[in-house]
Design a protein that fits this description.
346 residues, three-stranded parallel β-sheet, binds zinc ion
Length: 346
């Protein structure tokens, strides 16, 4: 079975919102896109595990994606203390999974290997509200294993502006990085961490390039195929390749369909068109997967991690060779992590 290392999932948020022991839920076949049994069935060997401070009063209703065109209002900024409390709970869940041996969080380059007990994981923060404008909170989160930061989810932060869920639109929907955002980018670079630009408005994307970081979009697709504000133009995809970065294919149906809809039917067929475009623009060494499992509606043929072989079969049927399939499914992400993460874990 082809093993998958994936650029983005929201399993920690799902588990943190539940009332049961997260390690037990993860080991069972309970509902949700990722669990140990599903991972075993589908060849899911690991990925970026995101922590996200969900605003209970401004949740995203997926029903809006039924009727393109659409444009959702951005939720208001979240105060740092509110975000920090929510993220602390998800750090706890991450450590519970690690203590149970279900996952191992890579803290250094040499730990970015698929072999070993449990799933390989990168602890990621989606939206940096919990860090604070002067970088407060960063040391503690790094000590807890954090190795990847998206300065902004779609609501604005002290660091950057995010794109609304708007279709059709490109990502040029707001200003670039703030001075605090540029300082955070430099700090991420200094610490050999990953900076994720998915959700970031286009001006911020280019600001990240100006700071000399590799451009990474862990879960975004090709704007040329599906003109969503969340997807990347050809120029952005080219820059990802040129800077030695990575883009991960998002399985969220509304980012796959050329009409921006969220139907599960036929959605997976468009995945191959996105991959073709991403490979053509970024190059075959800079494209991977970025499922958005537990964070987005999934295609009918890819309802959870157990169905990943369906995507691999489509790649094969489309004529991708085994070497390319291995690159897309895990090798490119692993190479990127080995050249990016700190040499030692301290
Ligand atoms: Zn996201």
């Amino acid at each position: 079975m082809t093993l998958v290392f994936d650029g983005h999932n929201d399993a920690l948020l799902r588990l943190a919102r539940g009332t049961q022991d997260p390690a037990e839920v993860f080991a069972s076949d309970a509902p949700g896109h990722i669990s140990l049994p599903k991972a075993a069935r589908g060849g899911f060997a690991g990925g970026f595990f995101a922590m996200f401070a969900l605003d209970d009063n401004h949740g995203l209703d997926f029903a809006i994606f039924d009727n393109p065109p659409y444009d959702t209002p951005l939720p208001p900024q979240m105060p740092r203390d509110v975000a920090a409390e929510k993220i602390a709970r998800q750090v706890e869940v991450a450590h519970r999974l690690e203590a149970a041996g279900h996952v191992r969080f890579a803290r250094s380059a040499d730990a970015a290997v698929l072999e070993g007990p449990g799933l390989l994981a990168i602890l990621h923060l989606e939206g940096a509200e919990a860090i604070g404008p002067e970088g407060e909170g960063l040391d503690a989160l790094c000590a807890a294993g954090l190795r990847s930061i998206g300065p902004v989810w779609s609501r604005p932060t002290a660091f950057a502006h995010g794109v609304p869920f708007r279709f059709p639109s490109d990502g040029d929907t707001g200003p670039g990085l703030t001075p605090e955002g540029k300082a955070l980018a430099r700090e991420i670079k200094r610490r050999s961490m990953v900076l994720d630009t998915s959700h970031m408005a286009m001006k911020g994307f280019w600001d990240v390039a100006d700071e000399g970081l590799p451009l990474v979009a862990t879960h975004s697709n090709a704007h040329a195929i599906s003109p969503s504000a969340r997807n990347l133009t050809d120029a952005q995809l080219q820059a990802i390749g040129q800077t030695g970065g990575m883009v991960g294919l998002n399985f969220g149906t509304m980012f796959l369909h050329p009409d921006g809809g969220r139907g599960g039917k036929g959605a997976l067929d468009h995945a191959i068109r996105h991959l073709d475009q991403m490979i053509a623009q970024a190059g075959e060494d800079h494209v991977g997967l970025g499922s958005d499992f537990d964070g987005a509606p999934m295609p009918d043929q890819l309802q959870d991690a157990g169905a990943l072989p369906n995507l691999v079969a489509l790649m094969r049927a489309h004529g991708y060779g085994e070497t390319l399939i291995e690159k897309l499914c895990h090798e490119n992400w692993l190479s990127f992590l080995r050249r990016t993460l700190p040499k030692d874990a301290t």
